[in-house]
Amino acid sequence: MFNCTLCYLENDRGEYLMLHRVKKKNDVNHDKWIGVGGKFEDGESPEECLLREVREETGLTLTDWRYRGIVTFVSQGWETEYMHLFTATQWSGEMVSDCDEGVLEWVPKGEVEALPIWEGDKLFFRLLKEDRPFFSLKLSYAGDTLVYAALDGRELAL
User: Fold this and answer.
1) Residue 143: HSE in the Cβ half-sphere, 13 Å Cα cutoff
2) Beta strands of the chain (E only): which ranges?
3) Cα(141)–Cα(98) distance, integer angstroms
4) Structural domains of the chain, with CATH
5) Which of 22, 87, 101, 24 is nearest to 59 (CA)?
6) Cβ contacts of 129-133, under 8 Å, gap ≥ 24
7) Chain centre distance of CA 47
């Protein structure tokens, strides 16, 4: 199992910064649209990992962020992942034009669910939209199919 961060930067035009994962080989997220983030390095806190990963992938330095929840991903053939989910509304610096992970693009929030995203991501996008306090979401997959979800320890109907 491993820990990672995922962050959705939100601009004042109602858009999320999304990463279209098209550059890495053997990427579980290949062709999906996700936020920015990555695996913890030894000794890092969630916030330290967040700041480092966002800077590495976007060139931006976050100045205002919010820890929104933890998402447990379980999938056959992949290590269990504990994803620390953040949103950010302020940053400094200039966004890079080229990211090693894929293509960065601002996407209107209302259009995100129409993109090729993980089915479970739709659940946490709804929680973000509702401005739900800190949450724990468990998502279990068989291949690309979401087969189980639980919010704060209670199973959700799929």
Assistant:
1) 1
2) 2-9, 15-20, 33-34, 61-75, 78-92, 103-108, 135-142, 145-151, 154-155
3) 31
4) 2-155 (3.90.79.10)
5) 101
6) 132/69
7) 14
Sign of CA dihedral 98, 62, 139, 45: positive
Q: Sign of the CA dihedral 58, 59, 65, 66?
A: positive
Distance of alpha carbon 135 from alpha carbon 105, whole angstroms: 27
131: left (phi over 0), alpha (psi -120 to 50) or beta: left
Predicted TM-score (pTM) of the model is 0.93
In DSSP terms, 81 is beta-bridged to 2, 73
According to DSSP, residue 55 is labeled H
Going by C-alpha positions, the residue among 111, 112, 96 that lies closest to residue 34 is 112
pLDDT tens track, the chain, 158 positions: 999 999 999 999 999 999 987 666 666 666 789 899 999 999 999 999 999 999 999 999 999 999 999 999 999 888 999 999 999 999 999 999 888 888 899 999 999 999 999 999 999 999 999 999 999 999 999 988 999 999 999 999 98
